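My current task is to audit a protein record that another person submitted. I have pasted the whole thing underneath without changing anything:
***
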Amino acid sequence: MDQVHTRAMDALQSFVHLADSSSASSPRFVANIITNATASPHTYVFAELLERPAIQALRSPDTPPELQGYITLLEIFAWGTWQDYQQTPNLPLLSEDQARKLRLLSLLTLASSVKPLTYEILMDSLSLSAPSDLETLVTTAIYSSLITARLSPATTPPTVNVTSVAPLRDVKPTYLPTMISTLSAWESRCGSVIKDIEAEIAKIKADSAQRRAKENTRLVVIEKTLAKWNAEPGEAGRLGGDPAGRGSAPKKLGWKARDIGTALRNRDFFGGGSNKREFDDDGFWDDNSNELDALGSGMDIDEGAGARTGLGSAGARTAKRFLGKKS
């Protein structure tokens, strides 16, 4: 749609140059410029032409009465509609090209302001008597890239579904204060939203910094606790060295967090289990394995904690011999 606006501006430049030329001193010459500009198939914006001094000179009382209406006609093409032309007296008659152009421009305005855009509304606003005439006009607007739309003649009521409109209508000067007020209010709301967002961002940053400070404090406490624990004397005789506490002096513990977890998981580290296997005095094991008993008599062997953990002299065994034969 922006390309359409650019093409329309480019198409108007030749008429702007004519209005600025020395020949534009004649009111009739200026009126001819307006007629040709409004009938041209590619001109859809007219504000720049309307601002030229030669065009504005038509408002002079010295302008012939039959030519004074041309500047009003140009204003209607710039921001007015077909109904404005119908309701304004003393305007020049329109050629077929001018009438089609004004209806197309009016269609842009109606498509931007009226929802839903029914056949009835359009035909009444554009003074069209047959639906086929309306469909031809809408099709022309679509192929000229003025609107993006789809005709729905079978719906109830029949409608024209417009999805986009080219920015090809000029702004009426009297609308500018309202537009400025609307834009100012919008700017104020945007500023308020930005302030709220900035306040929320600051709050999130502050909460994040507070959480990091608490986490750092907790880590410092844990490190100090572990350091103090490592500095205290432990029962080295029971945890390393002679399990009976003989033959070695107590040592300071050098525990770390992983050492504590390993020690807790290894329950046999703190107390031994028993694993007894009985010998039969007939020279074989009592578990029916048919393996030879070298001692030749019943013997009960107690494998203590040291045998399971393998720490120091904890692997010593205590044997008990039972007298008599197994009956």
User: Anything to note?
Assistant: Strands lie at 147-152, 159-165, 275-278, 299-303, 318-321. Residues 270-321 form one domain. Residues 235-255, 267-285, 291-327 have pLDDT under 50 and may be disordered.
